[in-house]
Design brief:
Elements lengths: L7 E7 L7 H11 L4 E7 L5 H10 L4 E4 L4 H7 L6 H6 L4 E5 L2 E5 L2 H11 L8 E5 L3 H12 L4 E6 L2 H14 L7 E5 L7 E6 L17 E9 L8 H8 L4 E4 L1 H16 L5 H14 L1
Parallel strand pairs: 1-2, 1-3, 6-7, 6-9, 7-8, 9-10, 10-11
Antiparallel strand pairs: 3-4, 4-5
Bound molecules: NADP nicotinamide-adenine-dinucleotide phosphate.
Length: 284
């Protein structure tokens, strides 16, 4: 609640945005913590992201989540006041105003890590293949390395973008160079304990064109996209011998919880929200 007695205003900006579950998640977290808030979906025009953000905060908005395809633009907008996570990621998914200045953080990495731990596939000591090099992939590379994965390779349809992501990470932390690789999708070969799909292909029911034989014994296939039925990537992974499969619903709730903590100073309980969302997904 703001000092004027009206609930504080939050939202998520993307294009498209209709599919977003963030309002449900934040409103449920708010009820858990007895915090009165509003949280809305905001469709920004593809060429109008900055204006949308400025209007929202100009009208007294308190915080925004940012989703596809604007995380890199959000990074630029908050460039003067970034958390270390956001600076290392080069992408922002959480914005807030403090003392009249726009601040940015990236909570995708924390969301992914807490979900991998919840699933019993923490990355420590594991070989990890990360498919995709957009805003979501950027947010998780350094947290995965930090969590102690043995090696990480980033592959992308546009190989140059994967190389750029690796170069950015190594520039920030040169010690990563030996454990971090990059290439095109055809350079994904090897045996991996965890294969993470950070492409948006599953939104269009298209799996990335990966070579066969990627999954080590007991490996996990993880798709950042979530759906009521197994995504195109998870079906491909099962066909190629992945022992375990999970979608990104837990990551979604985990990144939202970390954003909620930034805005409200409280860590919500994610499990009941995750269970409610999973039920809702099956009935819609
Ligand atoms: P983005 O910045 O637009 O990047 C899209 C990525 O997908 C690029 O690497 C792109 O490759 C690749 N791609 C798209 N279509 C492809 C195809 N048919 N085959 C192979 N690669 C393809 O998007 P983003 O922000 O990184 O988000 C990626 C996905 O993660 C989205 O679906 C988003 O919903 C999901 N996500 C989920 C969570 C969660 O909490 N669960 C959090 C963040 C993101 P090119 O570079 O070659 O174009």
């Amino acid at each position: 609640m703001s000092s004027s007695g009206t609930p504080k205003r939050y939202g998520v900006v993307g294009h498209p945005i209709a599919q977003s579950r963030s309002p449900f998640i934040h409103q449920t977290f708010g009820r858990q913590a007895a915090i009165d808030l509003t949280y809305e979906k905001i469709l920004a025009p593809l060429d109008g992201f900055a204006q949308t953000v400025h209007e929202f905060f100009g009208q007294g908005g308190a915080g925004l989540n940012i989703t596809v395809p604007f995380k890199e633009q959000a990074f630029e907008l908050a460039r003067a006041h970034l958390s270390e996570r956001a600076r290392l990621a080069g992408a922002v998914n959480t914005l807030w105003m403090r003392d009249g200045r726009l601040h940015g953080c990236n909570t995708d990495g924390v969301g992914l890590l807490t979900d991998l731990e919840r699933l019993g596939h923490g990355p420590k000591g594991k070989s990890v293949l990360l498919v995709g090099a957009g805003g979501a992939a950027k947010g998780v590379v350094l947290p995965l390395m930090d969590a102690g994965c043995a090696r990480l390779r980033v592959v992308n349809r546009t190989a140059a973008r994967a190389h750029g992501l690796r170069a950015h990470a190594v520039e920030q932390l040169p010690a990563l160079a030996d454990r971090l690789g990059a290439g095109g999708l055809d350079e994904a070969g090897g045996q991996w304990d965890i294969v993470i799909n950070a492409t948006s292909g599953s939104l269009h029911d298209t799996p990335p064109e990966l070579p066969p034989g990627l999954y080590a014994q007991g490996a996990l296939a993880y798709d950042m996209v979530y759906a009521a039925a197994p995504t195109a990537f998870l079906r491909q992974a099962r066909d190629q011998g992945a022992a375990h499969a999970a979608d990104g619903l837990g990551m979604l709730v985990g990144q939202a919880a970390a954003a909620f903590r930034i805005w409200h100073g409280l860590m919500p309980d994610v499990q009941p929200v995750l269970e409610a969302l999973r039920r809702e997904l099956h009935y819609t």
